[in-house]
């Protein structure tokens, strides 16, 4: 693991990232979950706390990933931009890198798993990304990207294990502290750890008293195990690819992310596949937010696992993205409650 002191970002890093991404990534909305609208849609799920939804699906690429990707690529020198950038991603980070590279005049190569949703692959290509397909395991795409860096001299833009990426994602947390200064609890999805580590760091460094908890599918619960054992663990690709939440299938937290999580995160809760799908349906039918399953895990925790969370009167749940497969979208809308 990198030296922890060197790895941890500062509030100045986060504020610099906010200045750097201004005009590209937007300040996304924070919306209260209307329980009466839930009931009208057929959902009778008791809630005691106010739940507020941080709608990262409003970003130009439909995901929070633009924050970190743009912050990283905008920090490169003209010579580095000329060499081109490369990343490995199941979809949302791919789009963030392609979007940022196009805006900054750099070539972008994206290594994606063959199992990535077609909507995300097509969106990446539409943004100018050159897509290279590999097998489903997250380590496969990382290894292929490193191989292409060695061959062509591209600049790597990691999906999460990078201080510029973490600082960029942390701008989401900074916005939460300004939009909901009275929040007791902030919930963030966790996969490789970029968003959770960034949000938690920003919330704590900004002086908020809110606790920050990670939310993860139980079928891809490597982060939960790592946090519980205080040891960075890795799950097999065959395990993590079982979850419907395709953006949360990473096999291990990044080392820098893990250092931030150990320092600033208060807990991690896992949810079942059925709970993820139910929370996705709540968002689709009882709010104006269109989520992907990966973005609905926070609401799943808030709705179905309140007993595992600290007491809270106001919860902010980050809906990390909205790039849902159209077929799944229609299936969930049509399903009975």
UniProtKB/TrEMBL annotation:
MF (Gene Ontology): L-serine ammonia-lyase activity; threonine deaminase activity
Gene3D superfamilies for the chain: 3.40.50.1100
Co-factor(s): pyridoxal 5'-phosphate
Pfam families for the chain: PALP (PF00291)
Domain of life the protein comes from: Bacteria
UniProt domain Tryptophan synthase beta chain-like PALP: residue ranges: 49-321
Classification via SUPFAM superfamilies: Tryptophan synthase beta subunit-like PLP-dependent enzymes
Keywords, sorted A to Z: Lyase, Pyridoxal phosphate
Signal peptide residues on this chain, from the entry's feature table: none
CDD domains: Thr-dehyd
Biological process terms in GO annotation: isoleucine biosynthetic process; L-serine catabolic process; L-threonine catabolic process
Similarity annotation: Belongs to the serine/threonine dehydratase family.
Descriptive protein name: Threonine dehydratase
Organism expressing this protein natively: Terriglobus roseus (strain DSM 18391 / NRRL B-41598 / KBS 63)
Taxonomic lineage of the native organism: Bacteria, Pseudomonadati, Acidobacteriota, Terriglobia, Terriglobales
